[in-house]
Specification:
The chain is 30% helix and 28% strand. The protein contains seven helices and twelve strands. Strands 5-4-3-9-10-11 form a six-stranded antiparallel beta sheet. A hairpin with a 2-residue loop joins strand 10 and strand 11. Helix 1 runs antiparallel to helix 2.
Length: 214
């Protein structure tokens, strides 16, 4: 490391020397220009084993745009559960506009699904699930929460009926399962242990043991 020698014969590192100069600027009012010349007159030590500078300079990363949250109220007209999504047909309370909402983070079972329990008995679990869902949502008021970030389209976050998250209810009833890791996991475990809906099928339970336990 490069050093400086004081009047007393002691050696100071370039870093310590720089600190001393900065202190003199503060105590004695040395002009900014002369102080800058003094500091950079000290030879800086080369970085050892580092490809780039020890301290990178630059501006702080820009803050991400904060999303605003809004809610909309609907009356549910009908629902449809598919193997790749859960769609609910609704009418907007304010404009009376008909819309179809796909619940985020959940997928459903086929209403035509036939389950077989551990004894091999056949169960019409798909049609039972349809009746359950229709009874829960039809002609009910549903409130949906959406977030909108600057420059982006509104994003549906969740929908609820009577304070109950609809997607979570679907998972807990065994009518569907989560598509996002960690989402409604407790509800899925409860449905599986109680053999509700799709979980009445022994093959489904055995095939998704790992997913249900993590």
């Amino acid at each position: 490391m490069n050093t400086l020698t004081g009047k007393s014969g002691r050696k100071f590192s370039a870093i310590v020397a720089g600190s001393i100069v900065a202190g003199l600027v503060s105590l004695h009012g040395i002009g900014a220009a002369s102080a800058e010349e003094t500091v950079f007159a000290v030879e800086q030590p080369a970085a050892i084993g580092v490809d780039g500078p020890l301290f990178a300079t630059g501006s702080l990363p820009a803050k991400s745009a904060v999303a605003s949250e809004t809610t909309e109220r609907f009356i549910v007209h009908r629902s449809a559960v598919r193997t790749d999504s859960v769609a609910i047909s609704v009418v907007t309370l304010d404009s009376q506009e008909e819309r179809t909402i796909e619940l985020p983070g959940v997928t459903g079972m086929s209403f035509n699904k036939i389950c077989r329990n551990g004894d091999g008995a056949r169960i019409a679990c798909g049609s039972r699930a349809r009746v359950q869902l229709v009874n829960f949502v039809t002609r009910k008021e549903m409130t949906c929460t959406m977030t909108t970030a600057v420059g982006e389209a509104p994003k549906l976050v969740a929908c609820a009926i009577d304070g109950q998250d609809v997607a979570e209810w679907i998972v807990r009833s065994g009518i569907g399962r989560p598509t996002v890791d960690g989402l409604h996991l407790a509800a899925m475990r409860e449905a599986r242990s109680s053999e509700r809906g799709m979980w009445a099928d022994a093959e489904t339970r055995n095939g998704l043991v790992i997913a249900a336990q993590h």
